Amino acid sequence: MPERVFGHIPGYPEDSRFESRAELSEAGVHRPLIAGISGSEREGADSIVLSGGYEDDEDLGDEVVYTGHGGRDAESGKQVAHQRLTRGNLALAHSGIEGLPVRVIRGANLDSQYAPRSGYRYDGLYMVDDYWQESGRSGFRVWRYRLIKLPSIPTRVDMVSEGPGAYSTQRRETTVQRLVRDTAQARQIKALYDYQCQMCGTRLEGLAGPYVEAAHIRPLGAPHNGPDTADNILCLCPNHHVLFDHGGVGIGEDLSLVGADGRLTVHPRHRIDEGHLLYRREHYLD
Amino acid sequence: MPERVFGHIPGYPEDSRFESRAELSEAGVHRPLIAGISGSEREGADSIVLSGGYEDDEDLGDEVVYTGHGGRDAESGKQVAHQRLTRGNLALAHSGIEGLPVRVIRGANLDSQYAPRSGYRYDGLYMVDDYWQESGRSGFRVWRYRLIKLPSIPTRVDMVSEGPGAYSTQRRETTVQRLVRDTAQARQIKALYDYQCQMCGTRLEGLAGPYVEAAHIRPLGAPHNGPDTADNILCLCPNHHVLFDHGGVGIGEDLSLVGADGRLTVHPRHRIDEGHLLYRREHYLD
């Protein structure tokens, strides 16, 4: 089983065409031959195929409302039971809470002006902006997802190559952390702390998994030019991330918090660079 | 003194030209005749003029690093003291923490390829993405601001008119709350609760003021189509906003929290619509 790739598949840029699901699968753009959602509960979903399966789907091009799977009668295709937030449905929600990009493929069977005339077309990366459940036209509850297209050309290109097989991240550091697709380094730090805030220990738990943010000590981008390396990344809850960015809390030389009680928790396997901490103190605390 | 306007000034679209600071002031695009920053500590900054005042400024067009004011010798213009986070400097930081849009005007004196050939040009709205202090070339500490241009054409137009004299808000609900320019309704709710979270009472305090988020109970936009009215808005800290959006915490019929201890604090002057709460419960909790 090849590693799951989030993001573009090398060699298959946006607008690539495929004649069949088999060809899509072979290319690695959407691996499953039948399922509309590719992904796992633990890793998240990496791609979906829009092909007119559900009557409730809506396609506005750059914005799609997509219906999860499950609860349909195999013979008639009718919704005969509630959908649950498991398997592909949970995977897609997980991509939402983790900010993972999802490849969207449209098929000719899709009832939409954006459907290709024949076969399948790769339409680029989308983010899962929102997910919720509702009673579909059948009366049974279904899970729904709003997907929003990510810019084809990043506003500020920071393509981070993570070696063969890994995905390229469009890091839009100039916008807002919650929109940021984390790099491998950031994901590792979040996992190392098991999604607990290094300042307060908080672990936020949503339906689709835990949520925490990666904060750079010395910011990325000019003029700070901090590196995207583990020794420059903290694992913070959104509240402490806001405080950290706005000078409401800082980190002293002895790792005690400045402007708050307590001390930064540091995992034995997490070496934090003192120079970056100094940079932060000098530039972001009054 | 006319009311301070955040956002575009009606009648002066992007790329409007002005011969002088007096003309800029008369139009209301940048009121002060000499100061580079227009704003107040309490309200935030509504506009800045880039005209080559500081040697440390950087202009990349859609991204600007701007230096605050103060500490310069009136005669020589040289930096002779540290800058403080007060007056215009605090106003600009306040716009950052509040997410207020700042009008940017470039003057012909600016040492940049983006400077107009003569007079002044209004170059649209920017957000204050980051602010920090550093030792300028003079050796004295200055406050610096990174401003990022907001899209001229909103990706999803939700121009909210707030009546004469008020500003139009580009609400980009499809991105992330921290980037959202609040509407008047949201700002009123935040003020009513004095920036305290209705779920936990937390009030985050940065150098430039308090920070809290406005959360819509029944989400805006299709297919939810919740209204942007006070009875559909909560004042939440970022942590509870994340939990609320990801089904980690909900609000029961009796306003007790679902998935957490405690109860929603509701101000006597804040009527919350029960229908919106019901919608939220039915769609966002499993």
Task: Write a brief caption for the model.
The structure is a homodimer of 286-residue chains. Chain A is an alpha+beta fold and 286 residues long. Chain A has 2 domains: 17-149, PUA domain-like; 173-284, no CATH class.
Secondary structure elements and pairings:
Two copies of one chain form a homodimer.
Chain A: E1 17-18, H1 21-27, E2 37-40, E3 44-50, E4 58-59, E5 63-67, H2 87-98, E6 102-107, E7 120-135, E8 141-149, E9 159-160, E10 169-170, H3 184-192, E11 204-206, E12 209-211, E13 213-216, E14 233-236, H4 238-245, E15 250-251, E16 257-258, H5 274-284
Parallel strand pairs in A: 3-6
Antiparallel strand pairs in A: 1-7, 2-3, 4-5, 5-8, 6-7, 7-8, 9-10, 11-12, 13-14, 15-16
H/E element order of chain A: EHEEEEHEEEEEHEEEEHEEH
Computed CA radius of gyration of chain A, to the nearest angstrom: 21 Å
Structural class of chain A: alpha+beta
What form of chain A results from the Cα inertia axes?
elongated
Give the CATH superfamily of the largest domain in chain A.
SRA-YDG
> What CATH architecture label of the largest domain in chain A applies?
Roll
How would you describe this protein?
- 2 copies of one chain form a homodimer.
- Chain A is of the alpha+beta class.
- The first copy, chain A, has 2 domains: 17-149, PUA domain-like (Roll), CATH 2.30.280; 173-284, no CATH class.
- Helices cover 16% and strands 26% of the residues of chain A.
- The first copy, chain A, is built from 5 helices and 16 strands.
- Chain A has helices at residues 21-27, 87-98, 184-192, 238-245, 274-284; strands spanning 17-18, 37-40, 44-50, 58-59, 63-67, 102-107, 120-135, 141-149, 159-160, 169-170, 204-206, 209-211, 213-216, 233-236, 250-251, 257-258.
- In chain A, strands 1, 2, 3, 4, 5, 6, 7 and 8 form an 8-stranded mixed beta sheet that branches.
- In chain A, strand 7 (120-135) and strand 8 form a beta hairpin.
- Chain A is elongated.
- Chain A starts with 16 loop residues before the first strand and ends with a helix.
- At the A-B interface, strand 7, strand 8, strand 11, helix 4 and helix 5 of A face strand 7, strand 8, strand 11, helix 4 and helix 5 of B.
